Amino acid sequence: MSLSILLIVYLSFTLDRKDDIKISVIELNGDNHLKKDQYFKFAGLDKTNEYGKLTLSLIKDRIEKHPYVNYAEVKYEGQNKVTVNIFEKNIDAILIAESRQFFITDELEVIPFLPFTNKVNYPVVSNPFIETDLKNIKWVNKESDIVTGLKILTTLKLVNPGLYEELSEIDLRIGKDIVLFFSNLDYPVVVGRNNEIRKTLYLNSLWGYLNGKDVNHYMNYIDLRYNEHVYIGLNSFPDNKENRASEDKESES
User: In the chain, helix, strand, coil percent, each to 5?
Assistant: First the structure.
């Protein structure tokens, strides 16, 4: 018998063995997006008087069925205590479409945004152009508009983690010009369509000149739509003279 077969037999025996253990306490660790009681309720582990019916494999199976959980490790610690270590899925963004919210994982999986969810400080990808009913979408890898938004997000994360942390929303505007919003800026960044990654790199280069500068107080947009040119719209200069040069570049998408 090979080593791998022996290992599988051992693990199966470890999880399924129940005759010689009694479970009265279940401890759960690794809960970030939901509190322990929500995981327990979902898995039917909230009633201690029913613990006598449980096995280690059953606990593992129930916990891993939760949409937030990637996998779980279940171990009998002795003295009637079981420890469950959960490893939640990595969330990249919150998807808002058709007035509904979802999580998008780093594996491009769409999972429901559940009540009582904690830690929701993720960038929002909103108003994608999609032809399929969202309730039928499990993975977004074939939804090109959503993928475009995620490419912008990933590019920012790689080249400028600080600016990425300030990214609050990528508005895909149902196929129209893409607009970015940042929590530390009072103005939008218009990306438009096509060459979105290149334009995001332009924004990163520009940010090196704008970050912390007084000019941010007088800006009302950054426009990256026009090939390799970047246009900055100004409300007014400090001396209250209008910036006529920027006005003729401002247009409605």
Answer: 35, 25, 40
Task: Report pLDDT for 123.
Answer: 96
> Chain-centre distance of CA 109, in angstroms?
10
Judge if 73 and 96 occupy the same domain: no
Tell me whether residue 86 is exposed, middle or buried, using C-beta atoms within 10 angstroms of its C-beta: 0 to 12, 13 to 18, 19 or more: buried
In a domain, 253, yes or no: no
Question: Which pLDDT band, with edges at 50, 70 and 90, does 236 fall under?
Answer: low
pTM: 0.81
Say which CATH number the domain at 206 has: 3.40.50.11690
Q: Which residues are CB-contacts of 78 (< 8 A; sequence separation ≥ 6)?
A: none
Task: State pLDDT tens for residues 45-72.
Answer: 999 999 988 999 999 999 999 999 999 9
- Is 252 part of a structural domain of the chain? no
Q: How far is Cα 106 from Cα 229, in angstroms, rounded to an integer?
A: 32
